[in-house]
From TrEMBL:
Lineage: Bacteria, Bacillati, Actinomycetota, Actinomycetes, Mycobacteriales
Organism (species): Corynebacterium matruchotii ATCC 14266
Superkingdom per UniProt: Bacteria
Protein name: ABC transporter, ATP-binding protein
Keywords, comma-separated and alphabetical: ATP-binding, Nucleotide-binding
Keyword Methyltransferase: no
Amino acid sequence: MNYGGGMSARTTAAVEVADLHITRAKNHILHGLTFTLDKGSITGLLGPSGCGKTTLIRAIVGSQRITSGTITILGQPAGSAQLRTTVAYATQNLSIYRDLTVMANITYFARLYGATDYDNVLETVGLTDYRTTLVENLSGGQASRVSLACALVAHPQVLILDEPTVGLDPVTRKSLWEVFRQLADTGITIMVSSHVLDEANHCDNVILMRRGRILAHAPIDTIQQETHTTNPEAAFLAYIANNS
Protein backbone atom coordinates (compact mmCIF):
# COMPACT_ATOMS: atom_id res chain seq x y z
CA MET A 1 0.00 0.00 0.00
CA ASN A 2 1.35 3.42 -0.93
CA TYR A 3 0.57 5.74 1.97
CA GLY A 4 2.34 8.76 0.55
CA GLY A 5 0.49 9.26 -2.73
CA GLY A 6 -1.81 12.10 -3.69
CA MET A 7 -1.42 15.88 -3.42
CA SER A 8 1.97 17.31 -4.40
CA ALA A 9 3.73 20.56 -3.64
CA ARG A 10 6.28 22.69 -5.46
CA THR A 11 8.91 22.56 -2.75
CA THR A 12 10.67 19.83 -0.78
CA ALA A 13 8.94 21.09 2.38
CA ALA A 14 5.72 19.37 3.38
CA VAL A 15 5.06 21.73 6.30
CA GLU A 16 6.10 25.39 6.53
CA VAL A 17 5.60 27.37 9.73
CA ALA A 18 6.42 31.10 9.66
CA ASP A 19 6.52 33.48 12.64
CA LEU A 20 3.81 31.57 14.49
CA HIS A 21 2.39 33.24 17.58
CA ILE A 22 -0.39 31.81 19.72
CA THR A 23 -1.92 33.64 22.66
CA ARG A 24 -4.51 32.10 24.94
CA ALA A 25 -6.33 34.07 27.67
CA LYS A 26 -3.68 36.81 27.33
CA ASN A 27 -0.90 34.25 27.88
CA HIS A 28 1.67 34.03 25.09
CA ILE A 29 1.98 30.28 24.42
CA LEU A 30 4.09 30.17 21.24
CA HIS A 31 6.61 32.90 20.43
CA GLY A 32 7.31 33.41 16.73
CA LEU A 33 8.10 29.84 15.68
CA THR A 34 9.57 29.36 12.20
CA PHE A 35 10.60 26.02 10.69
CA THR A 36 9.96 23.57 7.85
CA LEU A 37 9.47 19.81 7.74
CA ASP A 38 10.91 18.01 4.71
CA LYS A 39 8.83 15.47 2.83
CA GLY A 40 9.43 11.88 3.89
CA SER A 41 11.29 12.86 7.06
CA ILE A 42 10.75 12.16 10.75
CA THR A 43 10.98 15.20 13.01
CA GLY A 44 11.02 14.82 16.77
CA LEU A 45 9.25 17.63 18.63
CA LEU A 46 10.98 17.37 21.99
CA GLY A 47 10.73 19.27 25.23
CA PRO A 48 9.28 19.12 28.74
CA SER A 49 5.56 18.99 29.46
CA GLY A 50 4.01 22.45 29.16
CA CYS A 51 6.53 23.81 26.66
CA GLY A 52 3.93 24.20 23.89
CA LYS A 53 4.30 20.97 21.93
CA THR A 54 0.62 20.04 21.89
CA THR A 55 -0.44 23.61 21.10
CA LEU A 56 1.91 23.62 18.11
CA ILE A 57 0.60 20.25 16.95
CA ARG A 58 -3.00 21.40 17.22
CA ALA A 59 -2.12 24.48 15.17
CA ILE A 60 -0.56 22.33 12.46
CA VAL A 61 -3.61 20.08 12.18
CA GLY A 62 -5.93 23.09 12.16
CA SER A 63 -7.68 22.70 15.51
CA GLN A 64 -5.96 25.61 17.28
CA ARG A 65 -6.69 29.26 16.58
CA ILE A 66 -3.55 31.10 15.46
CA THR A 67 -2.90 34.61 16.77
CA SER A 68 -0.49 35.52 13.97
CA GLY A 69 1.87 33.88 11.51
CA THR A 70 1.19 31.17 8.94
CA ILE A 71 1.21 27.39 8.64
CA THR A 72 1.24 25.90 5.14
CA ILE A 73 0.92 22.18 4.48
CA LEU A 74 1.56 20.91 0.97
CA GLY A 75 0.73 24.35 -0.37
CA GLN A 76 -2.51 24.75 1.59
CA PRO A 77 -3.23 26.72 4.79
CA ALA A 78 -3.46 24.51 7.87
CA GLY A 79 -7.04 23.47 8.53
CA SER A 80 -8.10 23.68 4.88
CA ALA A 81 -10.78 21.29 3.71
CA GLN A 82 -8.35 19.94 1.10
CA LEU A 83 -6.14 18.60 3.92
CA ARG A 84 -8.78 16.59 5.76
CA THR A 85 -7.58 13.29 4.38
CA THR A 86 -4.01 14.42 3.71
CA VAL A 87 -3.06 15.23 7.30
CA ALA A 88 -3.57 12.56 9.97
CA TYR A 89 -3.39 13.24 13.70
CA ALA A 90 -3.10 10.74 16.54
CA THR A 91 -3.69 12.37 19.92
CA GLN A 92 -1.83 11.52 23.11
CA ASN A 93 -4.96 9.95 24.59
CA LEU A 94 -6.37 7.07 22.55
CA SER A 95 -9.11 8.30 20.23
CA ILE A 96 -10.39 4.82 19.45
CA TYR A 97 -13.21 2.80 20.96
CA ARG A 98 -12.13 0.31 23.62
CA ASP A 99 -15.40 -1.67 23.43
CA LEU A 100 -14.97 -2.35 19.69
CA THR A 101 -12.68 -4.83 17.99
CA VAL A 102 -9.54 -3.72 16.24
CA MET A 103 -11.08 -4.13 12.78
CA ALA A 104 -14.34 -2.46 13.80
CA ASN A 105 -12.37 0.62 14.83
CA ILE A 106 -10.47 0.68 11.56
CA THR A 107 -13.64 0.23 9.51
CA TYR A 108 -15.38 3.02 11.41
CA PHE A 109 -12.58 5.53 10.80
CA ALA A 110 -12.29 4.44 7.17
CA ARG A 111 -15.97 5.26 6.65
CA LEU A 112 -15.49 8.68 8.26
CA TYR A 113 -12.73 9.41 5.76
CA GLY A 114 -14.56 7.79 2.85
CA ALA A 115 -11.61 5.43 2.45
CA THR A 116 -12.01 2.07 0.72
CA ASP A 117 -8.45 0.74 0.32
CA TYR A 118 -7.34 0.11 3.89
CA ASP A 119 -7.00 -3.67 4.19
CA ASN A 120 -3.23 -3.55 4.65
CA VAL A 121 -3.09 -1.14 7.59
CA LEU A 122 -3.14 -3.99 10.13
CA GLU A 123 -0.14 -5.55 8.43
CA THR A 124 1.61 -2.19 8.43
CA VAL A 125 1.28 -1.83 12.21
CA GLY A 126 1.85 -5.53 12.94
CA LEU A 127 -1.61 -6.45 14.20
CA THR A 128 -2.89 -8.93 11.62
CA ASP A 129 -3.53 -11.53 14.33
CA TYR A 130 -5.73 -9.16 16.37
CA ARG A 131 -8.51 -8.28 13.92
CA THR A 132 -11.30 -9.59 16.16
CA THR A 133 -9.76 -8.63 19.52
CA LEU A 134 -11.47 -5.97 21.61
CA VAL A 135 -9.23 -2.93 22.12
CA GLU A 136 -9.82 -3.15 25.89
CA ASN A 137 -8.05 -6.53 25.84
CA LEU A 138 -4.91 -5.21 24.15
CA SER A 139 -1.71 -3.99 25.76
CA GLY A 140 -0.93 -0.27 25.75
CA GLY A 141 1.50 -0.68 22.88
CA GLN A 142 -0.97 -2.67 20.81
CA ALA A 143 -3.69 -0.07 21.42
CA SER A 144 -1.29 2.62 20.23
CA ARG A 145 -0.79 0.64 17.05
CA VAL A 146 -4.55 0.48 16.51
CA SER A 147 -4.73 4.25 16.89
CA LEU A 148 -1.93 4.57 14.33
CA ALA A 149 -3.73 2.21 11.95
CA CYS A 150 -6.90 4.32 12.20
CA ALA A 151 -4.84 7.39 11.30
CA LEU A 152 -3.46 5.63 8.22
CA VAL A 153 -6.70 4.52 6.59
CA ALA A 154 -6.98 7.68 4.46
CA HIS A 155 -3.40 7.39 3.13
CA PRO A 156 -2.12 10.64 4.65
CA GLN A 157 0.93 12.46 3.40
CA VAL A 158 1.56 14.15 6.76
CA LEU A 159 1.26 12.23 10.04
CA ILE A 160 1.29 14.09 13.36
CA LEU A 161 1.71 11.96 16.50
CA ASP A 162 1.37 13.47 19.97
CA GLU A 163 3.36 11.51 22.58
CA PRO A 164 2.67 8.12 20.92
CA THR A 165 5.23 6.22 23.01
CA VAL A 166 4.50 7.63 26.47
CA GLY A 167 4.26 4.92 29.11
CA LEU A 168 5.42 2.15 26.81
CA ASP A 169 8.26 -0.24 27.60
CA PRO A 170 11.56 0.10 25.66
CA VAL A 171 10.91 -2.90 23.41
CA THR A 172 7.46 -1.64 22.39
CA ARG A 173 8.80 1.89 21.82
CA LYS A 174 11.53 0.50 19.59
CA SER A 175 9.04 -1.48 17.51
CA LEU A 176 6.81 1.58 17.06
CA TRP A 177 9.75 3.65 15.89
CA GLU A 178 10.51 0.94 13.34
CA VAL A 179 6.96 1.36 12.00
CA PHE A 180 7.43 5.15 11.87
CA ARG A 181 10.61 4.70 9.84
CA GLN A 182 8.91 2.34 7.41
CA LEU A 183 6.14 4.89 6.89
CA ALA A 184 8.61 7.72 6.32
CA ASP A 185 10.39 5.58 3.75
CA THR A 186 7.14 5.50 1.73
CA GLY A 187 7.17 9.33 1.60
CA ILE A 188 5.03 10.26 4.60
CA THR A 189 6.21 13.30 6.57
CA ILE A 190 6.05 12.53 10.28
CA MET A 191 6.21 14.72 13.36
CA VAL A 192 6.44 12.90 16.69
CA SER A 193 6.23 14.78 19.97
CA SER A 194 7.82 13.44 23.14
CA HIS A 195 9.31 14.56 26.43
CA VAL A 196 11.72 11.60 26.27
CA LEU A 197 14.76 13.30 24.79
CA ASP A 198 16.55 10.08 23.86
CA GLU A 199 13.93 9.51 21.17
CA ALA A 200 15.80 12.15 19.19
CA ASN A 201 18.09 9.32 18.11
CA HIS A 202 15.29 7.87 15.96
CA CYS A 203 14.62 11.13 14.08
CA ASP A 204 16.07 12.76 10.98
CA ASN A 205 15.70 16.16 12.65
CA VAL A 206 14.63 17.37 16.06
CA ILE A 207 13.00 20.54 17.29
CA LEU A 208 13.96 21.27 20.88
CA MET A 209 11.34 23.44 22.60
CA ARG A 210 11.17 25.26 25.91
CA ARG A 211 8.63 27.82 27.13
CA GLY A 212 7.03 28.19 23.72
CA ARG A 213 10.27 28.83 21.87
CA ILE A 214 12.52 26.74 19.66
CA LEU A 215 15.98 26.21 21.10
CA ALA A 216 17.30 24.24 18.13
CA HIS A 217 16.14 22.59 14.91
CA ALA A 218 18.66 20.23 13.31
CA PRO A 219 19.75 16.57 13.29
CA ILE A 220 20.60 15.49 16.83
CA ASP A 221 24.21 14.74 15.85
CA THR A 222 24.61 18.34 14.70
CA ILE A 223 23.04 19.67 17.88
CA GLN A 224 25.35 17.54 20.03
CA GLN A 225 28.40 18.70 18.06
CA GLU A 226 27.39 22.34 18.48
CA THR A 227 26.89 21.91 22.24
CA HIS A 228 29.92 19.61 22.71
CA THR A 229 27.71 16.97 24.31
CA THR A 230 27.26 13.23 23.81
CA ASN A 231 23.51 12.71 24.28
CA PRO A 232 20.23 14.57 23.63
CA GLU A 233 19.51 15.35 27.27
CA ALA A 234 22.92 16.94 27.79
CA ALA A 235 22.46 18.95 24.58
CA PHE A 236 19.08 20.23 25.75
CA LEU A 237 20.50 21.27 29.11
CA ALA A 238 23.39 23.01 27.37
CA TYR A 239 20.96 25.09 25.29
CA ILE A 240 19.08 26.04 28.44
CA ALA A 241 22.31 27.11 30.15
CA ASN A 242 23.34 29.17 27.12
CA ASN A 243 19.94 30.91 26.89
CA SER A 244 19.23 31.51 30.57
